[in-house]
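Can't paste images in this forum, so I'm doing it all in text. The chain is below; anyone willing to post the predicted structure tokens underneath?
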Amino acid sequence: MDDQRGGPAVVAGVDGSTSSLQAVRWAAREAARRRAPLRLVAAVGWVTAPHQYGDPRTGPDLREVLLRRARADLAQAAQAAAGAAPGPEPELEVVGGFPVPRLADESRTVQLVGPLRCAVRRCSPCTRGANCSSAR
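Text version of the structure:
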């Protein structure tokens, strides 16, 4: 069976948490159902300049540590997506910035952004229209 997918993607934000992996599995199933590509995004909020570079007293370059962690989170999320809905490999990207605004940016060019939960149990503006259980 030909599983070519085209058009706007279904996007899920990735941060390595259990709820993030649940959102990835949901997004993978939704992408398969819609025959759309899956895009997994990890947003890394950069720290201020004094903390951005390695310091012999504090250890390795924090930026590089954050990038490595984001890449590892994306690899784990790609495995979760493959287990939830076989199909083409998802597009993986690490983007600079904080998660909610970056996913809001993503929502302008994609078909659907996966559900997010925030601390006050409301959906962020970028998930309007998604089937988000925390909106109930």
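The CA atoms of residues 57 and 77 lie 34 Å apart. The domain at 10-135 is CATH 3.40.50.12370 (Rossmann fold).
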